[in-house]
Specification:
Layout (H helix, E strand, L loop, with lengths): L8 E3 L5 E2 L12 E3 L5 E2 L11 E3 L5 E2 L13 E3 L5 E2 L12 E4 L4 E2 L12 E4 L5 E2 L12 E3 L18 E3 L14
Parallel strand pairs: 1-3, 2-4, 4-6, 5-7, 8-10, 9-11, 10-12, 11-13, 13-14
Length: 179
């Protein structure tokens, strides 16, 4: 479906994996309903017109750039995601807040040029954030972390004048999933 100009909605109730570039550059794709997807391939939804994503079972983003350049993306709910891949949300300029209750790792440039990103709430499983993960985000980005200062090297991870709230219990709008 790469660059399919007429594709506006995708419903895949049984799919578990979405291949690389599958829906990339489908500019009119605004709705995706894939409740059983656990893995998204590289570039799979890049440059789409989606405004909201909810993947209740997604645990991994394989490779990179899954939602890159989705300029209309505002609402992201990924309760079981453990790793944010490199440039996964690169250029998502409408994204203002993201809650990552199950994340363990945030790779380099994961949110690069997500210029409206103001708040990121991170859950208690976080172990590493790569350099420049937040480069090009809004000045004064608020990063809420449930760990002690110094527990994750490299702060503020590329964010300009970030406000980092350490030892803050997770309080995002996306709940921490049970097991």
């Amino acid at each position: 479906f790469y660059q399919c100009p007429d594709l506006e909605r995708v419903t895949l109730p049984l799919a578990q994996t979405i291949a690389q570039s599958c829906f990339s550059r489908c500019a009119n794709l605004t709705e995706v309903d894939m409740p059983n997807v656990t893995e998204l391939g590289a570039y799979c939804l890049m440059s789409c017109g989606i405004t909201s994503v909810y993947f209740p079972k997604l645990t991994q983003l394989s490779n990179d750039y899954q939602f890159s350049s989705c300029a209309s993306l505002v609402d992201v709910r990924l309760p079981k995601l453990s790793k944010v891949s490199t440039s996964a949300f690169y250029g998502c300029t409408s994204l203002t807040q993201i809650d990552l209750p199950s994340v363990v790792t945030i790779n380099s440039t994961a949110f690069k040029n997500a210029s409206s990103l103001q708040v990121i709430n991170i859950g208690p499983k976080i172990r590493s954030i790569f350099s420049n993960a937040f480069s090009g985000t809004a000045e004064g980005l608020v990063i809420n972390l449930p760990v002690a200062e110094g527990a994750i090297n490299g702060a503020p991870w590329g964010a300009t004048n970030a406000v980092i709230n350490y030892e803050t219990p997770y309080a995002g709008t996306v709940p921490i999933p049970e097991s």
